[in-house]
Amino acid sequence: MSSWRSAGLNYVNYSNIAAQVLRKSLKADHKERALKRGKSTIRYFYWSKGEMLPQGEKPKQLEKDKA
Predict the structure, then answer these.
(1) Count of domains forming the chain
(2) Strand runs (DSSP E) across the chain, as ranges?
(3) Residue 63 has what pLDDT?
(4) pTM of the model
(5) Domain coverage including residue 33
(6) Fewest C-beta atoms under 10 Å: which of 1, 15, 34, 58?
(7) Helix (H) or strand (E) holding 14
């Protein structure tokens, strides 16, 4: 059995930890670029009737569900 599996981690968690350790161990000139690659962002786009809604606007049905 793999050491990461016996530690109770799945492969995604294991690889994320390994990537963080690697990025932190790099020399300063390479470290900065590597740390930027480690960040991720998510953007949501709402669509209604086949068209993307303006940024910040949500479909009316979503607003009713939250109320």
Answers:
(1) 1
(2) 47-48, 51-52
(3) 54
(4) 0.47
(5) 3-66
(6) 1
(7) helix 11-25
